[in-house]
Design goal:
coiled coil
Amino acid sequence: MYNDTDSVEKLLVSLIKMVGKNNEKVDELTKRVRQLEIASKEQQINRVYSFIAEPPRPNSSRKEYARK
C-alpha cells in the first residue's frame, strides 16, 4: 500500500510541476501579446501618412518638374 501511495504522490507532484511550467509559459506569452498590442497601437497613433503628390502644374517654379 505504501508503494501505491508513494507513486500517486510522485505523480501528483510531477503533474503540479508540469502545470506550473505551462502556466508560466502562458503568462509569458500573454505578456508578449500585450506588449505587441501596445506597440501596434502606439505605431498607429504616431503614424505619419505620406501621399503621392500630384505633379506640379507646368507653370510651377520648381525646376525638376519644369517641362521644356
